[in-house]
Amino acid sequence: MRSQSVDSDLGGALVGRGDVVRELNRCARNARSGRACSVVVTGPAGIGKSALLHAFLSGQAGRHATVLQASCEEGASSASFSGVRALLGSIAQGAPLEGAARHALPALTPGAPAGESPHAPAVQHVFHGLHRLVLDMLSRRPLVLALDDIHHCDELSLRWLDFLLRRSGGLPLLVVLTQQAEAAALTRRTPAHHALTDLATHRRTTTLRLRPLTEPDVAEIVRGFFPAPAAPVFLARARAATGGNPRLLGRLLRELRAEGTGPDVGGADRIAETGGRVLASWARELLDRRPPWVEQVTRAVAVLGASGTDHVGALAAVPADVVADALTVLREAGLLVPGGRHLADGAVRAAVLAPLDAQALSSLHARAALLLSDAGRPAEEVADHLLHVPSIPEPWMPGVLLEAAARAEQLGAPEAAARYLYRVLEVDPDSVEVRFRLARSLAETAPPEAIGLLREALAPSVDVRTRARIAAQFGTTGLAAREISVALDILEDVLDALDTELGPDPLPADRELRTLVESVLLIVGSHGRSTFAATRKRAAAMTLPEGDTPAQCQKLAAMAVLTALDDQPPEPSVNRALRASSCPQLPLKSWSLINSAIVLDLADRTDDALRALDRVLRHGRENSAIWTYALALSIRAGIQHGLGALPDALADASTAVRISSAERWGEVMVLPRLALAGVLVDRGEAASAEALLTSIEPARREEYVWTHHRYLMAHGRARRALGDAEGALALFRECGRSLEEAEVHHAAYLPWWVEAACVLAELGRAEEAQEPAAHGTRLARQWGTPRVLGLAALARGVATPGDGGVELLGEAVRELASSPARVEHARAELVLGKVLLADGDRPAAREHLRAAAGLAQRCGALALGRDARATLVAAGGRMRKMTGSPLDLLTSMERKVASLAAGGAGNRSIAQSLYVSLRTVEMHLTSVYRKLGVAERAQLAEVLRSSGVRGARAPRSAPRPGGQGFG
After folding, report:
1. Pair 314, 276: CB distance under 8 Å
2. How does pLDDT run across 668-691, given as a tens digit for each residue?
3. Is the dihedral of CA 27, 29, 31, 35 positive or negative?
4. Domain 8-209 has what CATH class?
5. Among 269, 536, 692, 852, which is least packed, fewest CB within 10 Å?
6. Does domain 889-963 have CATH number 1.20.1000.10?
């Protein structure tokens, strides 16, 4: 027998148990007054039962009564009267027992009768002798008998305690017992089970269940481990990770402290991993101390997971009642998810299965797969187990894996589909269909691997319709895998074969297949610098589709792009883009919508463009289309940049870079870095932008229309911002030359000519600037949107001296003000302001410079804004200095309102403290939310904190109706 006091994991602390101690003290007072009773303290392992018992016995109970305390050891249930001996054995070592008490001796010395029934005469004699012994003690002083962990106790000791209670009415006796909450489940198959049940349900017995620690309790314990104040999120996660179990909490905190982690937000982020390890260790410790049937069931639970809980008994080969008892044990130990029947943590699952070797584990999975298949469970549940077996020997298994893969494809889980299809390919390595489906599943996450599979599937023996489907997939995947030339060759060969096979009047399904191949050919060809012109000529010779089917919409959108970039009026390409993007059912939605968005953005139909990209992004999220998602984010970032929504553009571009960088193909995808670099230049971070651009290998960008020229523009703008005007001019001219070489003609697509004209004007070479200005003006008049007309006027304005130039710059301001291009509008205002200042018209200059600074500030274009402010100050104006803080967007009154709101003040309280109307506060808050891009006070407080501003509190003198603010 052992004597346990407190939990060493908590260093002796007893927290959150005041109500239970008070109840125990009340029972002790009742017992001392002659009302004998017993208390059973119950709760799961680690909840603090032993610590509570120690604290109680060390208090008033120990001062007013004789206390006999013991604890039952594991395995003691087989030794008769072991619990009694632990409590009363010391008495036998003192003075000899006299009278009836002598009958207690067999129970108090080793070698007590084993295997005897509680009702046997010999046992009853011992019971009476023990009762007499206790009566003698009670005649001298009140008595407390405390027995810890009675779920380990033997049957005869428990029966005697019940015997004692039934005969102790009117005596000053208190019996305090502790048992684990899962005791009934653990002892159900032992002789002690009914004895425990009878004792717990005795009319003189009160049961006290220890509950998990509350968050304030957790906070108190955390203070004992860490001197620094704990973050609320740390306390919440610590409690959630441990279920409020004191022993688990102590182990978690000890581990975190050993790692050097504090109770701050960073420490909260460590809790999931560290807590998983602690819980796994806890699980292994508990299972090692439980009967074998508990571990059998736990292994079955671990293998079957959340979806197979109804089949645990069959897999574990135990009856249903044993499963129920084992689940009770696991639930009480905190190893199951709340309200569920599966394990709470992956680390716990790993710890449960760790003792099994590979063969035993795969055997369990094979049996689980067969059980679930026979029970008619969904194919993916069965297939998940087949992934863990070394081979697929049974004829029914490939069919299940294929069905599971199809289901995964429907649910937008391509990585799961790929896992299933790999196993099928092991069985049927020559299957073209399996290779095709596997490649389609890998296209977004592993394009090179997908291309390899498609190449193997394109055998000459494969029928032409199947080859057409494979070629179409090869084309779109080839863009990600940088296989444009190969893809175009394959697509052209397949088109020729289709024409030969299908004839002049194909069936509707064959016509749609041919249109699909054509559409992919146009998409792929429009990406290459060397293939763009030929692809456009090929598109011009094609019949324009109606846009009634998915393939027709994809082809229509590709043709819209090619037409738009051919120095044509906007109407035909815009109409095609709108038609392609409005198709209600778009299985091929990504390229249909992406190409439509590109055209609509060029036409300043930015709302329509953003809606189309939002659909692509939604599809990407729902289908784990990572490559497409990163691509669409990059394009959206470019559109947001053009709109002057630089914070949104920065967020999209940064996300696209982060997502693509985490993938194996991250270095191949260039567009996210180009989008981010462009935003960084306008944010005043040109050096960072150039570093990002120079990290792109030339071979990664030079082949593509959509990346090479964007790189040249972004790099030229970065060089210009860094003071290298000549270097910038060379890059802009190279961009124009390369676009001309590729036969890409459009005013709004990378308007290098306006950049070149502005640089030349700054270099004092205004006459030379007239050439790019004239080039851009011709393109702009053909396209005709306010954005490009304004840029053309800007280019001509900087190239024209005197009043004519001022008039043209005024035209640029007016045109751009009516366009969605807010940064370009600010730029035109700045250029006009500088020209007016140089001409000596300071009042007019200040007006335009102030407008430029305000526009730039609202857009987040810090470089332009700082330039405008510096020029404004030089012109005699005044304006607060700009920083990178979003708070620069706020007026002084908006700052005051925002600070008070973030500090917790309600609208009415803010109004009273600032002596303004409630409506004024609401107006200012609305403006603050709009400018900072937030929707609620919590987000506002976070923005202020990130900018180093503390939320203010309303002055105490301000009256607060009813003692509260309203807002």
Report:
1. no
2. 999 999 999 999 999 999 999 999
3. negative
4. alpha beta
5. 269
6. no
